[in-house]
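Example record used in the benchmark description.
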Amino acid sequence: MDLDGFPATIKNMHLVAVQPSFMREMHIEALTCGFHDINAYMGLMLLLPKLESLTLHQFHGDDLFYASDVVRMDVLKNLEIRQIRPDETISVAVLLQHHLELPGVEQVTLSGMVISEADEGIFWPALAKAAPSLQCITLKQEETGYWPLTISLRSLLGLHRFPLLSELRLLGRDIGHLIQPMLEVARLRTSVTNLTLPPRNEFDGPALRAWDSVHQLARRFTVSNQQPCSMW
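Model output (structure tokens):
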């Protein structure tokens, strides 16, 4: 584990004894929080006062319901939630709602995640409470396709909870079904002025028509057709 400002991966809480007080980026992969290690997990967050980027990858934490600690991460700017099973969305929501305060987070990436209409009334309020300064949301399809990104229009309308939201990014392949919902959200949210979409030649049919309709609104939006590199 290299703590000299480079990314680190923590698997199954085996490395919580370190004190990476100057680490700026961390990737927590395949993390399962049980009753005994949830306190270690929350304690680990306290050891990272300079952390700027955090990825929660395959996060499973049913026992978060039994935790009481709240961690405030003032320096954190980027949060990625990646490869979350449909039945684990609630665990992420509980983490955000009750255990994390992220006042400085400006960018959130949702990658390979299912937010059903049943969950949208839980997840978006939790994210809004944890990250009230959020300015940019990226919806990203995993390249393998094994973890589909599934977010309904009704769920996306939950983005009205972020008053500072100014940018929406849609990245990856096979995500044409999200263009129209994202456009509807952008139309309703006057604060949104920047959109990022994959190139036009990746779409056909209704998705292509939706792509074209976005560009007809170019006078209102700054639209990028190039897929940017990873946020971090």
